[in-house]
Predict the 3D structure of the following.
Amino acid sequence: MARLDGKVVLVTGGGQGFGRAYCLGLAREGATVAVADINEDTANETRAMVEEQGGRAIVVPVDVSDESSVLAMRDAVDQQLGGIDGLVNNAGIFPRIELAEITKEMWDRIYNINVWGSFIVARAASHSMRQRGGGSIVNISSSTFLTPPTQHAAYMSSKGAIMALSRALATGLAPHNIRVNTILPALTGTEGVMSEPGYQMWYLEQRAQMQLIKRTAGADDVVGAAIFFISDESAFMTGQSLSVTGGTGMQ
Ligand SMILES: NC(=O)c1ccc[n+]([C@@H]2O[C@H](COP(=O)([O-])OP(=O)(O)OC[C@H]3O[C@@H](n4cnc5c(N)ncnc54)[C@H](O)[C@@H]3O)[C@@H](O)[C@H]2O)c1
């Protein structure tokens, strides 16, 4: 019996990077995974990879910043898989912008996807979880919250908002037997990070020197934390955050 047998888990941003790693890891533990992404092609690649390792997955296209799209995603998962037990609320963007260059438009774009998106996905999924008698939501913050680079004021504050949002959701959803916890991953060379101008391997290696464990992180480093929070092993934990950052902020 695997740790997540019988559970249906929705992963937003599941088409690449951390999202793909969560999908593969959760499926290895027996979960049926709904791979949700704005990019249907990469989401289909993730689905194929889950199936290759003997797991079960479906693809649900979504723009997490658009409420009608989010509700359609939730309904599609309900119809195809019978409901949602777990959510990894992972889709997010992280443009590097110098303080002086942040515009209202950029700020709103980051907040619409990272904060509003996380909120409406959690709210929509929680309705489905309530029908199943409960569930577990994992929100994604960031180590930039602990050691902020100057080009990340808008992104970092959105990830601080996620920490606060998680606590509010944990309080509001506890009566429905829904737990809400947060993971803070370290800077990791995912497809999204490596396509941002200014992110090169030497920079990631330099940032790794701010950790107690002085190596660059891989997407798989965070998967165990997500499995733990989705599984019943964390049944007595809610409103908590877990920094999976090699000891960032400890020195
Ligand atoms: N990579 C890092 O260093 C790092 C560190 C800490 C936290 N995080 C967080 O982890 C999460 C994933 O990051 P990543 O590095 O894997 O990014 P990534 O860019 O490699 O992958 C993000 C995925 O989200 C999807 N996406 C983007 N906007 C979307 C939208 N509006 N609706 C639906 N899907 C959308 C993309 O298509 C992509 O598949 C983000 O929330 C990010 O803030 C990343």
Summary: The chain has eight helices and seven strands. The pocket of nicotinamide-adenine-dinucleotide is lined by residues 12-13, 15-19, 37-39, 42, 62-65, 90-94, 113, 140, 142-143, 185, 187-188, 190-193 (CB under 6 Å).
